[in-house]
Amino acid sequence: MTISGKQFFISFQTPDNNISHSFDGRNPPCPGMIHSTKVDIIQYICIRIPAQNVSENRFRKRLMIIIGITGTLGAGKGTIVDFLIRDKGFTHFSVRGFLNKEIVKRGMVLNRDSMVVVANDLRTTHSPSYIVDCLYQEALSTGKNCIIESIRTPGEVISLKAKGSFYLLAVDADPGTRYARISERQSETDLISFETFILNEEREMSSDNPNHQNLRRCIEMADFVFNNDGTVKALEAAVSGIIDKILR
Questions:
Q1: Which parts of 126-193 fold into alpha helices (H)?
Q2: Which domains, from first to last, does the chain contain?
Q3: What is the per-residue pLDDT for 203?
Q4: 66-71, strands of its sheet edge to edge
């Protein structure tokens, strides 16, 4: 392709190297996006245009960011998600939503027990990271900064970190505070006693099976861990500071 009779080049970076391509006028106009099936990173194209008829040469490159959310039950994962969507422009992909569709498809009761059974079955049948890998591919197709919520197995963390441009945020809070929060939201999977709440959490906190939930290990693998015993504003401020650093 030419601009004012001169050719320009489109460059993009893979995890291994920089590749420059020249395109003729039959190709789509720029800027645009390139999705290579050989890599797991989409980046906005860096365009180099000769200075003729433009005020300056512009070199622009911005990496797409994926944020994973993990943490204990009722700790504030949804609060972080809502903040990132509202204030930071992220797009949300939910493991819970993914599992709920599968539960309905299988004709099962929609509760936490069904979510655990279906999640473990999918991971055993496919791979420990199957669910989040599916969501990751959906996220890539948007070309936007995205959130995957929530991450529950070490295999999921390992897979997502291997793809690059991934950061894992973890959140925790006092059990009593967390139970009060889930009681207030009144979702179908949260209408349980405090004793059941504790039992559910213990079941999901650790496992020697790589296909099963291991929240404790996921929290240990997180890039950033937040305590949410305080106010929503305090949590949002802490998250905002980290996200601003990541996006610089």
A1: 130-142, 154-163, 175-185
A2: 2-48 (no CATH), 66-247 (3.40.50.300)
A3: 87
A4: 91-94, 146-149, 66-71, 166-172, 224-227
Please return the burial class of 55, using the count of CB atoms within 10 Å of its CB with bins 0-12, 13-18 and 19+.
Answer: exposed
pLDDT (tens digit per residue) in 126-181: 998 999 999 999 999 999 999 999 899 999 999 999 998 999 999 999 999 999 99
The one-character DSSP state at 63 is B
Give dist(CA 238, CA 233) in Å, integer.
9
DSSP β-bridge partners for residue 9: 22, 48
DSSP 89-122: --EEEEHHHHHHHHHHHTT---SHHHHHHHHHHH
CA dist 110 to 70, 164, 197, Å?
21, 34, 16
C-alpha 231/C-alpha 238 separation (Å) is 11
Strand bridging mode 6-7 / 2-3 = antiparallel
pLDDT per position as a tens digit, 57-78: 333 335 789 999 999 999 999 9
Alpha-carbon gap, residue 158 to 183, rounded angstroms: 32
pTM of the model: 0.71
Q: Give the pair of three-digit tokens for residue 197.
A: 């709440």
Decide if 235 contacts 79 (C-beta within 8 A).
Answer: yes
- Alpha helices (H) in the chain, listed in sequence order: 77-88, 95-105, 112-125, 130-142, 154-163, 175-185, 194-205, 215-221, 232-247
Highest mean predicted confidence (pLDDT) among 2-16, 26-40, 122-136: 122-136
> Do residues 40 and 169 make contact, with C-beta atoms less than 8 angstroms apart?
no
